[in-house]
Amino acid sequence: MNKICALVLFLPVTLGAAAAEDPITTGASKSCTAGPAKKTFGGTKWLLYGCNDATSAVIVSDEGNPAAPFYFFVFREGGNYRIVGEGTGSKAASGAALRELQGLSGRGLANLAGEARRARPGR
């Protein structure tokens, strides 16, 4: 299992464990294992996973991405979408991806989770 898949598989446990204290998860455990869909954001490659709430998505740096290790969590809060990210790779690469994600409309961000669910693993 590569490091990227391990991060994504670990993420649901992390989100669920932090749910009681973290406003991002609003008290609900999230499993973000649908997908991945291969995407390009900010000129670099990312893997898109959908979450079990059908509105949230996790975007993880793909192999060879200078932002690695890095992930974004896209979720709905108070009628709007928020994007949070964390990682230690290239700030220029993750920043370029963030700017592209921020340029998406609310509908575009909402479509990310569905796109991941429609993806076939390994493609």
Describe the structure.
The structure is a single chain. With 123 residues, the protein is α+β, with helices and mostly antiparallel strands. It has one domain (3-118). The chain has helices at 3-17, 91-102, 106-118, and strands at residues 34-41, 44-50, 57-61, 70-77, 80-87. The protein has a 5-stranded antiparallel sheet, sandwiched between helices. Strand 2 and strand 3 (57-61) form a beta hairpin. It is globular, with a radius of gyration of 13 Å. It starts with a helix and ends in a 5-residue tail after the last helix. Mean pLDDT is 81; it is low at 1-27.
Any low-confidence stretches, pLDDT <50, length ≥5? Answer: 1-27
Structural class: alpha+beta
- The overall average pLDDT, rounded, is 81
In total, the number of strands is: 5
Helical content stands at 25-40%
Question: Strand order of the main beta sheet, please?
Answer: 1-2-3-4-5
- Taking the alpha carbons of the first and last residues, their distance comes to 16 Å
Note the beta-strand portion: 25-35%
What characteristic shape results from the CA principal axes?
Answer: globular
Radius of gyration: 13 Å
In N-to-C order, the SSE pattern is HEEEEEHH
Number of domains: 1
Largest sheet: 5 strands, antiparallel
* Structure annotation, total helices: 3
